[in-house]
């Protein structure tokens, strides 16, 4: 749906060049919710603004729904933008218009006849649950309600793509959850592709299908959300994941030393479960099958996109051969196994 | 009684008040007719804005500044040939409207510019993201969003023009300025002088109050 190739954006300020995006390539599939996470200043906002050309790329190509938006004339670009909705952190509603007229705004721009537009606005108000607020001015709404108006407005011209620029960053956690729920609902009902910019890993965890991690103007990692959560390959991703899932092993566990009997050795391992396997009694079947003892030291479980995701820190005791066999058994079941000491 | 004003002066005062109002209203109208678009152009052609055009912006900015740096009384004299050309004479109420309007246009342009610059860029960006063209951004975002501030600007302009009209009055422009100068000053009719002062104060207060009320009304509706 969206194909970004070699996107570079350089800002010129007196005396220096700022490389906001450096040779970024991404591919967003139709109907998915694609998250882009990064710290402030990483370039994520510039990236999303390049998709609808609010920022003109210095180099590179952006293809949205088969159309190279970087090569359009200004009038072609205006009609292309009508099919790319956008929502903002600070909502950007017009204070001079009622909720109804705010949602009417993009339809006016597109030249939709008044009766038709009016009918569409009513449908959208219903979709976002604000039918009773139609004649109210945005000044009287809460943050969550304002964002609902923003979403309705962005959907008015039935776009194929919805860009979300930190849409929940100004909202409290409860409101964030309800807005994310609405976005998920819209994504499923209308099969609209959503690109979400955020610095909040919770947003990614809640609703994104895939995620790109952007750091220092570059994409450092792209992949399925569950995959990145279970196996982050870069320190930046790991830091982000740690903000929502505790993956750190408590210090005292790493330096545990207990006298062991005979040929017994101890290994500190972490097993990561994703999806269905989280429900299986794998540890007990491992203990039954191999001559090892498992001492559960630490664990936690979470849900990512409704799927269980957890990790368990175990101390495995046994002779080295049995330990290897036991670990291979877990790996064969598709679990992630990391060893921390006692190799 | 020193402060007694006879019927003859009362008639004069009424006529002069009407002339001043007339000059101010007409010149406010014409100065916005030209000043509002000029202000819009000054904002939208500035760096990074929707119609960015450095050349146009710098030239217009320089012209506006040049006109604004002239004291009104000098402007008035400089414009005599032009006023004659347009109205046929440079004396009288109608003739005064020409220099008053021309002097107010750059002032209005700067006021409008200031009002429009206050608008959050996010709103403009939102409109652009929906595919709005420059005219739609101006007519549907910039002007409506700046309405309260623009209304206050009109009041400031009108009050300024009252001051200018009095200066025009001294060189034969009519209105309260002429009355105060010829009768109040040159004929030592102190009551006439005071009467014009009172009328001017009431006029200025009235315009300011009207502007404040209208702006507050718009703001309250949006709250």
Overview in brief:
Chain A has helices at residues 44-51, 74-81, 99-109, 114-127, 143-155, 173-190, 201-207, 225-230, 235-244, 251-254, 282-289, 320-332, and strands spanning 2-13, 16-28, 33-37, 59-64, 67-68, 84-88, 161-165, 193-198, 210-215, 218-224, 265-274, 293-304, 307-318, 336-341. With 343 residues, chain A is α/β, with parallel strands linked by helices.
What can you see in these coordinates?
- The complex is a heterodimer of chains A (343) and B (223).
- By secondary structure, chain A is an alpha/beta fold.
- Chain A is 35% helix and 31% strand.
- Chain A folds into two domains: 241 residues, Rossmann fold, CATH 3.40.50.300; 92 residues, 2-Layer Sandwich (Alpha-Beta Plaits), CATH 3.30.70.
- In chain A, helix 3 packs across helix 4, helix 4 packs across helix 5 and helix 5 runs parallel beside helix 6.
- The longest helix of chain A is centred in the middle third of the chain and has 18 residues.
- The model of chain A has no long low-confidence stretch (mean pLDDT 88).
- Chain B is an all-alpha fold and 223 residues long.
- The mean pLDDT of chain B is 91.
- The chains are: A alpha/beta (343), B mainly alpha (223).
- Chains A and B meet through helix 2, strand 6 and helix 3 of A and helix 6 and helix 7 of B.
């Amino acid at each position: 749906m969206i194909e970004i190739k070699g996107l570079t954006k350089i800002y010129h300020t007196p005396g220096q060049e700022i490389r906001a995006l450096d040779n970024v390539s991404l591919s967003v599939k139709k109907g998915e919710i694609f998250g882009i996470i990064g710290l402030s200043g990483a370039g994520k906002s510039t990236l999303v603004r390049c998709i609808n050309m609010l920022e003109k790329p210095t180099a590179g190509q952006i293809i949205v729904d088969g159309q190279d938006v970087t090569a359009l004339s200004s009038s072609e670009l205006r009609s292309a933008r009508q099919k790319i909705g956008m929502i903002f952190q600070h909502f950007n509603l017009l204070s001079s218009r009622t909720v109804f007229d705010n949602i009417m705004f993009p339809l006016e721009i597109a030249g939709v006849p008044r009766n038709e537009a009016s009918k569409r606005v009513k449908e959208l108000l219903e979709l976002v649950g604000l039918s009773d607020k139609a004649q109210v001015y945005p000044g009287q709404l809460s943050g969550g309600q304002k964002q609902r108006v923003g979403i309705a407005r962005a959907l008015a011209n039935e776009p194929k793509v919805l860009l979300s620029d930190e849409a929940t960053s100004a909202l409290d956690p409860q409101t964030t959850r309800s807005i994310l729920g609405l976005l998920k609902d819209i994504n499923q009902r209308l099969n609209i592709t959503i690109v979400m910019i955020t610095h909040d890993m919770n947003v990614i965890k809640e609703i994104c299908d895939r995620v790109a991690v952007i750091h220092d103007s570059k994409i450092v990692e792209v992949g399925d959300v569950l995959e990145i959560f279970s196996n982050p390959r870069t320190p930046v991703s790991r830091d982000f994941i740690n903000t929502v899932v505790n993956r750190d092993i408590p210090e005292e566990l790493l330096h545990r030393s207990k006298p062991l009997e005979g040929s017994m050795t101890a290994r500190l391992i972490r097993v990561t479960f994703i999806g269905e396997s989280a429900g299986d009694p794998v540890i007990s079947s491992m203990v039954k099958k191999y001559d090892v003892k498992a001492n559960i030291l630490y664990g936690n479980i979470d849900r990512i996109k409704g799927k269980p995701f957890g990790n368990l820190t175990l101390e495995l005791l046994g002779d080295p051969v049995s330990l290897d066999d036991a670990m291979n058994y877990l790996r064969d079941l598709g679990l992630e196994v990391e060893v921390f000491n006692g190799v | 009684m020193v402060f007694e004003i006879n019927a003859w002066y009362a008639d004069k005062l009424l006529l002069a008040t009407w002339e001043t109002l007339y000059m101010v209203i007409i010149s406010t109208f014409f100065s916005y007719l030209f000043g509002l678009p000029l202000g819009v152009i000054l904002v939208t052609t500035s760096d990074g804005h929707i119609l960015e055009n450095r050349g146009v912006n710098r030239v217009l900015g320089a012209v506006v500044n040049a006109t604004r740096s002239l004291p009104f009384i000098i402007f008035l004299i400089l414009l005599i040939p032009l006023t004659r050309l347009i109205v046929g004479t440079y004396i009288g109420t109608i003739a005064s409207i020409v220099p008053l309007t021309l002097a107010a246009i750059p002032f209005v342009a700067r006021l409008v510019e200031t009002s429009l610059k206050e608008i959050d860029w996010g709103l403009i960006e939102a409109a652009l993201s929906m595919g709005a063209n420059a005219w739609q951004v101006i007519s549907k975002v910039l002007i409506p969003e700046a309405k309260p501030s623009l209304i206050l600007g009109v009041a400031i302009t009108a009050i300024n023009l009252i001051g200018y009209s009095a200066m025009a009055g001294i060189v034969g422009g009519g209105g309260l300025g002429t009355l105060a100068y010829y009768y109040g000053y040159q004929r030592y009719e102190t009551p006439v002088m005071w009467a014009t002062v009172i009328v001017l104060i009431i006029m200025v207060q009235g315009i300011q109050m009207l502007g404040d009320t209208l702006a507050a009304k718009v703001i309250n509706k949006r709250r």
